[in-house]
Amino acid sequence: MSRATASGQVRQILDMNAFRPGDTDAEAVERRLANLGAASVLFYREPIEMVSAEGAWMTAKDGTRYLDFYNNVPSVGHSHPRVVEAVSRQIAQLNTNTRYIVSVVDDYLEALKAHMPDSLSNVVMTCSGSEANDLAMRVAMAATGGTGFIVTETAYHGNTALVTEASPSALKRGSLPETVIAIPPPSVQHSGEDIAGGFRRSVEMALAEFARRGITPAALMADSIFSSDGIFADPPGFLSEAVDAIRAAGALFIADEVQPGFGRTGDAFWGFGRHGITPDMVTMGKPMGNGFPMAGMAVRPDHLEQFCADVGYFNTFGGNPVAAAAGKAVLDVIRDEGLQENARDTGALLLEGLRDVARADARVADVRGAGLFIGVDLAEEETGRPDPDLTVKVIDGMRSRGVLIGAAGRYGATLKVRPPLCLKREEAEQFVEAFKGALS
Amino acid sequence: MSRATASGQVRQILDMNAFRPGDTDAEAVERRLANLGAASVLFYREPIEMVSAEGAWMTAKDGTRYLDFYNNVPSVGHSHPRVVEAVSRQIAQLNTNTRYIVSVVDDYLEALKAHMPDSLSNVVMTCSGSEANDLAMRVAMAATGGTGFIVTETAYHGNTALVTEASPSALKRGSLPETVIAIPPPSVQHSGEDIAGGFRRSVEMALAEFARRGITPAALMADSIFSSDGIFADPPGFLSEAVDAIRAAGALFIADEVQPGFGRTGDAFWGFGRHGITPDMVTMGKPMGNGFPMAGMAVRPDHLEQFCADVGYFNTFGGNPVAAAAGKAVLDVIRDEGLQENARDTGALLLEGLRDVARADARVADVRGAGLFIGVDLAEEETGRPDPDLTVKVIDGMRSRGVLIGAAGRYGATLKVRPPLCLKREEAEQFVEAFKGALS
Hints:
The structure is a homodimer.
Chain A: H1 3-14, H2 27-36, E1 50-54, E2 57-60, E3 65-68, H3 81-93, H4 103-113, E4 122-126, H5 129-144, E5 148-152, H6 161-164, E6 180-183, H7 188-191, H8 195-213, E7 217-223, H9 239-248, E8 252-256, E9 281-284, E10 295-299, H10 301-308, H11 321-336, H12 339-360, E11 364-370, E12 373-378, H13 388-400, E13 403-404, E14 406-408, E15 414-417, H14 425-439
Helix pairs in contact in A: 3-11, 4-11, 5-10, 8-9, 12-14, 13-14
InterPro entries (chains A, B): Aminotrans_3, Aminotrans_3_PPA_site, PyrdxlP-dep_Trfase, PyrdxlP-dep_Trfase_major, PyrdxlP-dep_Trfase_small
Pfam family, one (chains A, B): Aminotran_3
Keywords (chains A, B): Aminotransferase, Pyridoxal phosphate, Transferase
């Protein structure tokens, strides 16, 4: 692959780890491109037409079954019967908005809040994580009087205008506005062994730069497992110093739990839980309804009041009874099937299996993560440099071995290992075997 | 009601026509406020707990059945069995994102596009009308190089940061940014009998003001039935001159069809269809999935390309197969049950009935609309001034007569008549009777 092509490929991977179709001429792909146009983001150069899915498995039109390690939305398992039943029952009975009281909505909110720090006792329900982060940024501005946001350098927080400005990985051209500063993720490469101190110093440098610009900081916003940056989970607790630093400057900490939330990290229900911190706001989305479009923001009542004094906020679909039923079923399944514990145990098994591969193959430069959220760095054997070409080959090779997986990180050279939380031990083993096969 | 209270009441009505609970002590209300906090927007001072809904009717916990003339989301009827069946079937089979090809998604997009002008051949699916308008504004900026938006003075286009700035009715404090200019809606009060010319002149004055400010215009964005402004539908075609004016300035016309779309106006499938114009972009939402959270933007491929050159846009839940199944069922029901025709015919009956009331009662100052989207101005008998106090009394009086209805307009003195499209003649008659009763 030429340098230009490789660079383009990296760019495509960074563009949310997706590929546009290249040399495939399938009618279905043409049809999709005619419908979605330039906004079409199909996975793989030869995209897959899917017809059904169950548990950790997706089935293509040609009958091929794929083990899904890519899509972290159907987190309790594709087509989970309890979620299906809850949605089907509620949508047949009542689907309306929060201008009326509907008990299932408050039942859900109370069940959700039972997992939250007591201080975050208000929840605003939205349709997407993007809407939740858009709102959280505005609440932070209203609560602090500031406008400055600190994010990590390959962060992705969503697709609205405001949130895109705080999502370096979404920008193909142009630069961040002066109100947003991107700092390196909390990795050994950037901070050496003192991850906590290094990340705190990055936050402090950004605060100093805001001071130089005459901008009051509003918040540090971070995905607490840094998924788009390449997954940085350890050591637990490292976020605490940075959170202290941002608060010392009068600004807030927004925990974007869209990726790590709902038990995925195994150790805790939320990613921030691993760090012993209480965020000022928590945003959540993707796995919240196992695919039913829903998201939300947990917030301190006084902060929400400050925002609502200026703006009338209402979300037509947010907090509808069907979403609440889906969300309640997800919480029930996580509890009843012990999915957080399974994420911890099966995740540990998977991590160990991948580390075995790393010990035998120098191209597997690092394996790290928490629970069922693992990052695998792929590098050139001789130089140790991130290898996006190899990453693409491994992704394609795993596809041909029936495993779906994507990439992340600044160089697009980190496999983002993110299966449903119901993953079985034998499925984890199957993944490791496919990985070995794709590397060979 | 004191002047201060009346003014506060108007403010509350303008805040999306909703009331906070006042003197009710119901436990359910306390619970809701504890959960949603300052963002809670409950309808009526004594809010209603709903348990089920079907067709045009909602049933409260105490057994009271209400005729729903307020909620235009379940547009083909609450709990419509074909939508319920489509969602229940698809969610049990496959719910994933648009990185994979799933035929129901393209089936839906093609069915939707069959209702669109040929030029708008790309559709971006989102979760909410807010996300669709947020995206449309950015596409307009990318396509024109401009940043200026013209909206109407009580417009509401959604809840994201960018769209809120273009939604005068959402602002409780502060003012619009210099990139947004609000113009009067196309009403007789503002334009005399020459609605088309008056509205065009307002657009031209806003363009002149942008020139003075050194701002390049990006778009005129208008709900083509001006629902938040008080519902202005006639004469059909009046938008054409304003659209010509905005295009002459190198800017675009965004038709926000979240309210009037999907057959509601009776005369046409989209509100803009009544005006003989082809928008540069069409945004849609609320009734699109009959309550399933989904929305979208139809756009010219070249405009979308210009936007996507700068920003990687992806919407996790947008265009998921369950939304597509819901949306397809909605389109099928509108066609098979002749709901656009019913909106036209039952709407005409309702309009006539309301005009009969107006002829007999000077407080009913004006009745206007198209199909099943009708505005009813309530005014002081002596002065003819908009009467928000009377409007609140009528809304409460109709509630006690089993009819749900809200208000809109700059003064909060316009009843927003917006029942499901499946409304029966006898239900329209029942509404007129309840209105008469509430006035007496």
